[in-house]
Amino acid sequence: MSYHIQKFIKNLMPYLYSMNKSITSILILLVLFSNFGAFIVAPEEDTKNLIPEVSLDYATEATPNQELKVTVKVKNTVNDVMWDTLAYIDEDSMTKEAKAAFQVIEGKKLFPVRMDPEQESSVILVVKVTTKALSGEYLLPVVVATGIGGCREGCEPSLLTVFSTIKIKRNDPLITLEFDRYQIDIEQGVCEVELVVPYLPNIPFRISNINNTESAYNLKMTVVQDTPMVKGIIDPPVNQSVLPPGGQITGSLYIRASYEAPIGTQVIRVRLVYSDKYGADYDMFREISATVKNAGKNFYDQGRLYYDACDYENAKISLLQAREIYQENNNILVVQEIDKLIKRMEANDKFMQGQNKFFSGDLKNAVSFYSEAKALYTEINDCQSVQLCEDAMNAANRPLGGILGGVSGSGGESLTTFSIHTIIEILLAIIVAILLIILIRGKGGSGGGRTFNIKGKISKPSNQQNVRPSQQPISRPYIEPIRPIKK
């Protein structure tokens, strides 16, 4: 019996040993799965315990200059005490555009020092939409920071960021600035002419508000870049308080080039500033290229030289070429100056034709030419030359005026005086008359048997002797010859 028991136990031992090994393995696996499950579940429990419930209440749409209140509501759902809970706007995590769109007014608020489980509390943060905020959607990050634990020291920190999405709407005026052209050729000025608006080369411009609902405010346009020799002038000045929807402002940029302006291209830069109803300022720039030339000035200077030399034919040719160039450049003052010079030459020609008729004895036609010259001098406001023509007409209308007196001269210079040739002829006529009288009286004495006694010597006739009024020379109030003024 004992033998069989021993044998049974001996056979059972390997079986028990293998079973024990399997059980041990199962127990080890159970321990491992238990630890792994704890590892997976633990973070979920920790997160849940450290995150309170946070909600935001705010206006989702806003316009520039509007204040926004963001209500931050916190509920303690972590099943533990929350200490020193704080809500703030995280400006460091805001985008560049969001920073430009919002101005933080009240960006940080504290909740009650202690918040027990399930306790709720709210604070209000305030931001303002800036005047320059562009239309669009912006994220405003709000952070809730707190400490969780049973004591104020050594609490577990908790941070939660919640984003609010705010849509900004704005209606801006749409302003355009257009010039008829952006390049202009201008001529050097003429030193005899002071160039002023509106007698300058110019480029028209238009300022338009193409927005049908919004006005633009405080519009002002200025020249911000030019040179002392080539200046830009805006006329009429642009300084308008309001430009309504669809409104327009027109004007011109006048360009003055002095007679010393350098040849070449100069840049004139203008700036237009305005604001919208929110107070945001805008500006825009335009550049005009002004090319200074001297072709017209060269023709003008050449014409003046011919004029001073009394070569009116060539002077007129050069001046007309200059006039055409200045006319294209809208340089009206120089055009007017050239027209005056041409009329002066025509007047001088008419006056000289009158002189020629006067000295040839054709007094009627002389007066006609003097009258035409007077009309031309009157058009160019040459008062002294007008008076000279009147004196010449009066001289031609006097009795024997064609024999005894006159007005002579050449080119641009004239004078009023006695004709030297006429004076010599008068003196010769007087001497011949005296000799004839003496001869006639001498013959009469010999035929009648009488003698002709002349006491003393024959003397020259006194300057004070009486003569008939018709033989008196025309007196002139002028001591010096009259000369027309050169222009």
Q: What would you say this structure looks like, in words?
A:
The strands form 5 sheets. Strands 2, 4, 6, 7, 9 and 10 form a 6-stranded mixed β-sheet that branches. α4 runs antiparallel to α5, α5 packs antiparallel against α6 and α6 packs antiparallel against α7. Among the domains are: about 50 residues; about 120 residues, Immunoglobulin-like, CATH 2.60.40.10; about 120 residues, Sandwich (Immunoglobulin-like). The chain contains 9 helices and 21 strands. β9 and β10 form a beta hairpin. The longest helix is centred in the first third of the chain and has 49 residues. The C terminus is likely disordered. With about 475 residues, it is an alpha+beta fold. It is rod-shaped, with a radius of gyration of 56 Å.
Short description, anyone?
This protein is α+β, with helices and mostly antiparallel strands.
